Amino acid sequence: PFVVTENCIKCKHTDCVEVCPVDCFHEGPNFLVIDPDECIDCTLCEPECPVNAIFPEDDVPAGQEKFVELNAELAKAWPVLTVRKDPPADAGEWDGKPDKLQYLER
Ligand code: SF4
Ligand code: F3S
Known about the structure:
Blueprint: E1 2-4, H1 15-19, E2 25-27, E3 32-34, E4 54-56, H2 66-77, H3 91-94
Antiparallel strand pairs: 1-4, 2-3
The structure holds iron/sulfur cluster and FE3-S4 cluster (F3S).
Residues 2, 19-20, 22, 24, 34, 39-45 line the site of iron/sulfur cluster.
């Protein structure tokens, strides 16, 4: 499956949800995750993310391996999102900031 990684935190553009044919994106307060049990590896979402936060499970950036488990865990807790919504007003300021995991809201 594909995995949403750290750079989505506080950016949350949600362009990704519009293209997913199996509606497997789940929304939290400031982050989205992919349900690995539903993702069919179609690859459509990966280029849609303006901040390049989506990767195949086998190609997650070094140091972000924990996001594989985090997607699986949070997908069970958060509701599905299928329609794009506006990102946070300060999303641009958070693109590429390091160590954003500490800001993840559950
Ligand atoms: Fe959805 Fe395809 Fe992305 Fe998987 S790879 S989350 S099925 S759009
Ligand atoms: Fe996050 Fe990118 Fe989707 S910022 S909400 S993974 S478009």
